[in-house]
Amino acid sequence: MKIAIVSDHAAVDLKAQLREWMMEQGHEVADLGPDTTDSVDYPLFGYRLASVIADGTAERGVALCGSGIGISIAVNRNPACRSALVSEPLSAELARSHNDANVIAMGARLTGLEMAKACLSAFLETEFLGDRHQRRVDQLSNPDVRDNHD
């Protein structure tokens, strides 16, 4: 799978560890930065990730910052992205199966390496269920849709 990964300065170390781990799992991983712990603005890296998800360059994305909150908000500004902030594997699994999340966000200050790997495994291994969930996912990218379903 083609996966893009970004972080802010607080999550550079976790990003490097997860990048290497995903590559060991056989994934093609594009690290979109940053490369150092020098202070950066997380929205810019969130937008960078959202761009490659939206244009199809990457199938899935991993967004990391100190809490995971800010970078997830930035990614979700792009209507083609469905970024889910998770801290344990069940949330990652449900984000994929019910919400067709194409980006997982985690906080480096809140999630240890082994838990991050467990979340990432669930995210990468779980398929979207479609069916009744598809209508709802379509509505996520189009807020003007009105529910005509009883």
UniProtKB/TrEMBL annotation:
Protein keywords: Isomerase
The EC number of this protein is 5.3.1.6
- Identify its protein family: Belongs to the LacAB/RpiB family.
A GO MF annotation of the entry reads: ribose-5-phosphate isomerase activity
Q: Which InterPro entries match?
A: RpiB, RpiB_LacA_LacB, RpiB_LacA_LacB_sf
Residue positions of the active site = 65, 98
Q: Per UniProt, what is the name of the gene that codes for the protein in this document?
A: rpiB
Q: Which domain of life is it from?
A: Bacteria
Q: What class of enzyme is it?
A: isomerase
GO biological process assignments? carbohydrate metabolic process
Designated name of the protein:
Ribose 5-phosphate isomerase B
What does the entry list as the binding residues for D-ribulose 5-phosphate? 8-9, 66-70, 99, 109, 132, 136
Q: Which Pfam family, an example, fits this chain? A: LacAB_rpiB
